[in-house]
Write a structure and sequence with these properties.
The complex is a heterodimer of chains A (564) and B (422). With 564 residues, chain A is of the alpha/beta class. Helix content of chain A is 37%, strand content 20%. Chain A is built from 21 helices and 23 strands. A 7-stranded parallel beta sheet of chain A has the order 12-13-11-14-15-10-16, sandwiched between helices. The model of chain A has no long low-confidence stretch (mean pLDDT 88). Chain B is of the alpha+beta class. Chain B is built from 18 helices and 15 strands. In chain B, the strands form 4 sheets. Chain B has a 5-stranded antiparallel beta sheet. In chain B, a hairpin with a 2-residue loop joins strand 4 and strand 5. In chain B, helix 1 packs parallel to helix 13. Classes of the chains: A alpha/beta (564), B alpha+beta (422). Chains A and B meet through strand 2, helix 20 and strand 23 of A and helix 16 of B.
């Protein structure tokens, strides 16, 4: 076929998506290049899909990739001729980056355009006008320090992202060193990809570094990368995360792997309001207020110290008010940590403008091959509704149907069969309904952990689970986010939040830390056959398959005969 | 050109029973969602046309450049033929909302395998060997690209035999340049030149008065006839395979189906396809790494089209499988099609889900019936004893009467018993 190169792995489509054939002999080389300028959309078994967007191209430009390199890569690895308009689009997107620059001069911040027409376009744009104070020259404008973030947001929306070279305040100096040996007496060193990611963020302290997002899959050690960045910056740090449990785990990790002392790390949450050189807070406390008309008083924390670095854990969950404050904090170094740049609310451009461009993105398959994260097998087990509930189910409304199916009492028996298949292996039983979680925990004689469990009891249970004194723990939705249970090998999902993909990712993330031996993790979902629960499970199945996991569907009879 | 054309090696080829595939696509879409047609002329609305044209099997640009396979023409041909064969019918509700619906006959054809569907059409052509136009339409399959409306029956056969004869000596699967083939045939085997064809020519060319039967003109005409026959019948039925050689010239070769069509063999076998790459992914997407037009319509019967050409072209969904089940396809047929076309084995979760979706289908029967509402159980029992086997109790107070015919007799009996129908 004319212009057909079957050994090449890419198919570049007119809608700017790029398909990558995994079995191609040139797959790895192509993927390593592609990941620099395109976002991974899905990665099922044989063909992965990437998308080229303005943001992905700007991220690439920020990392020093040129449009010529991008076009060369597309041509070099493509099976078919690359649609001409795609190369034109790439060049167009790339040509917009860096034409505006934010600089710091003696008199303050300056926005500089590379040409007069562009300067005129900006000065006539209604989003930008209120943020420009005075015209310093034909292509130069003065701006207020407090408007730096807002201006960057506006410029991204206009389609001409500014390269921010205005630098950072140094923040309060703080000595942060990483340990060679953890407090628990195990050797500790950064993995190569962690060290590379931290290096890409810091950029040897140059102006082009110091703000951006690091994308790593669940279980790859994002916390450690955060600590490595703190070590490079050597300054007081504010860490924002998703829950109180995550706060505790950040603290435990910092104490375990750095030379910071207990009195240097503060917790800012509903329980405690200590502002110390390293302070860890939750997004919830920052956005808490008594009445919806009141101001967010805890946002003052951002000015509580002269922070040299702000870390946004799980940046894809960053709430809107924190975005607003972050817009005023552009003089501080900012690090976003996440497993995905895709936000449910579509505010990826705000992450780019306010936190910074993507600095590192390591595909999970690479980490799995290198043994840094566990291989996971996903199995859905379908069991029929018991006879006595069928009529009850048939006449219930849609929402009630889902709950009746999710709470199918026969799941307990199947659970037991799975536990028998994995004796002694650290296992999490995860459910959506507290009653169901408690009931199953009682039946199996295991402890349960729900939203109402006291923090002291949670900490004790986590500790017992980590140390292996406890091998099976039933948890409700509280375990969805940032619960760092290093030794969980098996997760059994007895009910979920309808078809939530994010929840599925978080739950699977609980078991992806590397395991001794075969480095194998197991993720089971129990689903009532021929019910609405099965329809929702199908959505989660699609998600897991698109992440590249092997997915099996078994009947309860197959489980009774023995799991494969 | 006096010498027969030389064989050539194509660098790319295209073979598909395009017409059968287009008919399949239109039927599948119509079955999933009966298409609205204009009440005035029974034609599809332009919005609907655009939607269907987007779903038609993709044809490479170099084939389209022959200027015969544009989607509009293909859709017209497919729709006319479906109508001709009684595979679709148009129904409206009280004089409005007219829709093209798939008939039972159409459904029965749709669930056949690709080979069976193509063979059905070939056998139909054999059956109508001498027939060139249908009662209702002259533009469809019966029209081979030659206007024969004024010919006598034996003259039609003569032309048809001559056209078939042009391809009889082609060795199967050997490619020749189309232009060379046409030129050779028009010079060396031109029936218009060889016979005493005065009357035939008069009827063949309705503009005879303006036509000068010079050797050059007759050669040009015969060349045109063979080209039309090639493109409008043989290629669209998969009897010829088109190719393009390294100089970009279009070439053709006779296929196994072509041999069957020309009566050179009684055996109907599926033609050998070049190795193509189609992948069924665990996330229910079907990705074409290279063009594979001949399977697109097959897959379109049970999957939703999401793209054209190469890339992700189809997605299997519960709704698409339920439509397929409703049309009469079975899980076995769907899975065997997927196994046949997929370069890698079909992921187990896909097989499991498809089988499960088919299993979840149930058939029910809806019928009109006559219900008798009784004031009390005693009356109901009385009526039951009077109506005997024509009356079935549904509950204590409600009875079902088997037919309208029994109603009259029962009413008369009831009246005698003092039970009146109000």
């Amino acid at each position: 076929m004319t212009g057909f190169f079957p050994d090449n792995p890419l198919i570049v489509q007119s809608d700017q998506t790029v398909l990558v054939e995994v079995d191609s002999p040139r797959y790895e080389a192509a993927r390593d290049e592609l990941v620099r300028f395109a976002e991974l959309v899905k990665s099922p078994e044989h063909v992965h899909t990437y998308r080229i967007t303005p943001l992905s191209i700007w991220n690439a430009c920020a990392a020093g990739v040129t449009p010529a390199e991008i076009v060369t890569v597309l041509h070099e690895f493509s099976k078919y001729p690359v649609p001409e308009h795609v190369t034109i689009q790439v060049q167009d997107f790339a040509s917009r980056y860096g034409r505006l620059r934010l600089l710091r001069e003696e008199d303050g911040l300056v926005l500089e355009a590379d040409t007069l027409p562009l300067a005129e376009e900006i000065v006539h744009n209604k989003l930008a006008i209120p943020l420009l104070t005075n015209r310093l020259g034909p292509t130069r404008f003065g701006i207020r320090a407090g408007d730096r973030g807002q201006l960057k947001q506006a410029l991204v929306k206009i389609g001409f992202p500014a390269e921010d070279l205005a630098g950072y305040t140094e923040g309060e100096a703080l000595s942060i060193a990483l340990r060679d040996m953890t407090l628990q007496e195990t050797p500790f060193a950064l993995r190569p990809y962690q060290s590379d990611a931290a290096g890409a963020f810091h950029a040897n302290g140059q102006l082009r570094g110091g703000s951006g997002v690091i994308v790593l899959p669940c279980g790859a050690g994002k916390t450690i990368v955060g600590m490595a960045c703190m070590h490079l910056v050597q300054s007081s740090t504010l860490i924002l995360t998703t829950s109180i449990t995550a706060v505790r785990q950040w603290k435990a990790e910092l104490l375990d792997k750095t030379r910071l002392q207990e009195d240097q790390i503060g917790e800012y949450s509903g329980h405690s309001k200590a502002i110390l050189p390293v302070t860890i807070a939750t997004y919830n406390i920052l956005t808490w207020r008594k009445h919806k008309d009141e101001a967010f008083k805890h946002l003052d924390l951002f000015d509580g110290r002269n922070w040299g670095l702000i870390i946004y854990d799980e940046v894809h969950l960053l709430p809107a008010p924190v975005f607003q404050v972050t817009a005023t904090l552009q003089a501080r170094r900012r690090l976003g940590l996440t497993a995905t740049l895709v936000r449910e609310d579509g505010r990826e451009d705000d992450v780019f403008a306010l936190i910074g461009p993507k600095k590192a993105d390591v595909p999970w398959k690479v980490l799995e091959h290198q043994g840094w994260i566990a291989k996971a097998v996903c199995t859905e087990i379908r069991l029929p509704m018991p006879d006595n509930l069928r009529m009850h189910y048939a006449v219930a409304d849609k929402r009630a149907k889902f709950r009746i199916a999710s709470e199918n009492p026969d799941k307990t028996q199947v659970l037991q069969a799975i536990l028998d298949r994995h004796p002694g292996e650290p296992t999490l039983i995860i459910g959506m309904y507290v009653d169901q979680v408690k009931q199953i925990a009682n039946h199996l004689g295991i402890p349960s952990l729900t939203g109402s469990t006291a923090q002291s009891k949670r900490d004790r249970l986590f500790d017992e689970f980590k140390t292996g004194r406890l091998s099976v723990l039933a948890v409700s939705k509280v375990a969805n986010f940032a619960v760092d249970l290093p030794d969980a090998t098996v997760a059994i999902q007895i009910s979920g939040t309808f078809g939530s993909r994010q929840e599925e990712a978080q739950r699977l993330g609980r078991i992806l830390r590397p395991k001794p031996g075969a480095n194998q993790a197991y993720f089971y979902s129990l689903v009532s056959h021929d019910t609405t629960e099965q329809d929702f499970a199908h959505k989660r199945q699609l998600f897991l398959c698109e992440q590249g996991y092997t997915y099996h569907i078994l009947d309860v009879d197959q489980v009774r005969k023995g799991l494969p | 050109m006096k010498k027969p054309p030389e064989p050539v090696k194509p660098v790319e080829t295209f073979q598909a029973a395009l017409l059968v595939q287009d008919m399949t696509t239109v039927l599948s879409l119509c079955h999933a969602n009966p298409m609205r047609v204009r009440a005035a002329d029974n034609q599809l609305f332009s919005k609907t046309r655009t939607l269907i044209e987007d779903h038609l099997v993709n044809v490479p640009d170099w084939v389209i450049s022959l200027n015969i396979y544009n989607p509009t023409l293909r859709l017209d041909l497919a729709c006319h033929l479906l109508d001709d064969l009684g595979f679709v019918s148009t129904r409206g509700k009280q004089g409005k909302d007219f829709r093209m619906e798939v008939s039972k006959k159409g459904l029965a054809w749709l669930v056949l395998t690709e080979a069976q569907r193509v063979r059905f059409m070939f056998d139909l052509l054999h059956e109508h060997q001498g027939r060139w136009t249908s009662k209702r339409h002259t533009r469809t399959l019966w029209w081979p690209g030659v206007n024969v409306s004024w010919l006598k029956k034996d003259e039609k056969c003569l032309v048809k035999t001559a056209l078939d004869g042009a391809f009889q000596d082609l060795p199967p699967t050997v490619f020749y340049r189309l232009e060379d083939f046409l030129t050779y045939q028009s010079i060396q085997a031109n029936p218009l030149k060889e016979r005493d064809t005065g009357d035939l020519l008069k009827r063949l060319f309705s503009y005879w008065n303006y036509f000068r039967a010079t050797e050059e003109n007759l050669e040009t005409k015969w060349k045109e006839f063979i080209f039309n026959y090639t493109t409008h019948r043989l290629v669209v039925m998969g009897a010829l395979c088109l190719g393009r050689d390294q100089d970009g010239k279009v070439c053709l070769a006779l296929t196994a189906w072509g041999q069957y069509y020309l009566g050179l063999t009684d055996e109907f076998i599926m033609p050998r396809q070049e190795a193509r790459e189609v992948l069924v992914q665990p996330n229910f997407e079907i990705v074409f790494l290279s063009p594979y037009a001949s399977v697109e319509a097959e897959i379109g019967r049970f999957a939703e089209r999401v793209g054209k050409g190469v890339g992700t072209l189809f997605k299997i969904t519960k709704a698409s499988i339920l439509h397929a089940a409703d049309a009469g396809l079975t899980a076995k047929q769907v899975l065997s099609t997927l196994e046949k076309v997929s370069t890698k084995s079909v992921p187990p979760n896909i097989s499991r889900e498809i089988a499960g979706w088919f299993d979840s289908c149930r058939q029910i029967h809806i019928k009109s019936t006559i219900l008798i509402h009784c004031p009390d159980e005693e009356t109901a029992l009385k009526i039951q004893s009077l109506g005997k086997q024509d009356v079935t109790p549904l509950s204590g107070h409600i009875l079902e009467l088997s037919s309208a015919k029994a109603k009259k007799i029962l009413i008369a009996k009831l009246r005698k018993q003092g039970i009146f129908v109000r």
